[in-house]
């Protein structure tokens, strides 16, 4: 069995994966935009598939999600640096190791995460 990764190693690995995905999505988005500029096709009424506007919107949403994930990872790395990583932001108790392994960017313990907000 291999030793578990440190929180920083897990976060850095996740950051590299998301950054690579963001680059791919940005390239896809740029290609869709370029294709729409170079075409005079009536894609809004094309029965063959999704519209360019739909593809652009879908890719834009995925880019926004990836940027949000990067922000979460950076915030978690900041918590590691300040010594607050692994401490619940709601109750101040520890966040379980299993939760941090499954979700390294977790800000709350499982108890606080499953409590509905009012």
Automatic annotation (TrEMBL):
Origin species, per record, is: Nocardioides massiliensis
Zinc finger DksA/TraR C4-type domain ranges (all copies): 83-114
| Superkingdom in the source lineage | Bacteria
Task: Report what the protein is called.
Answer: RNA polymerase-binding protein DksA
Q: What Gene3D superfamilies does the entry give?
A: DksA, coiled-coil domain
Zn finger limits (dksA C4-type): 88-112
Keyword annotations for this protein, in alphabetical order, are:
Metal-binding, Zinc, Zinc-finger
Q: Does the keyword Iron apply?
A: no
What residue range is the signal peptide? none
Keyword rRNA-binding among record annotations: no
């Amino acid at each position: 069995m291999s030793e578990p990764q440190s929180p920083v190693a897990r976060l850095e690995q996740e950051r590299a994966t998301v950054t690579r995905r963001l680059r791919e999505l940005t390239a896809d988005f740029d290609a869709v935009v370029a294709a729409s500029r170079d075409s005079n096709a009536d894609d809004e009424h094309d029965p063959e598939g999704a519209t360019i506007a739909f593809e652009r919107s879908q890719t834009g949403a995925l880019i926004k999600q990836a940027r949000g994930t990067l922000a979460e990872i950076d915030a978690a790395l900041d918590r590691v640096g300040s010594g607050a990583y692994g401490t619940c932001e709601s109750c101040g108790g520890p966040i379980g190791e299993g939760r941090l392994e499954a979700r390294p960017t977790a800000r709350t313990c499982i108890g606080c995460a499953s409590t509905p907000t009012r």
